[in-house]
Amino acid sequence: MAETKKEPEKILFSKEQIVSSMRYKKYRDFLSGNLDKHKNYSTEEIDKMIDSFYGKGKSGK
What we know:
Layout: E1 13-14, H1 15-19, H2 28-34, E2 40-41, H3 43-54
Antiparallel strand pairs: 1-2
């Protein structure tokens, strides 16, 4: 029998959890204004959102 590999489930967080977390403390204002309170987000989604807004990795320096 062939084994099927399942992708690990992403853990999702509410806007309230993200904004109150220590991990995103310095981005609280940005996240408060840009996250939907009716949607849940993974840490990967939040990191991509922050990177695209603040332009990390795109300076070419």
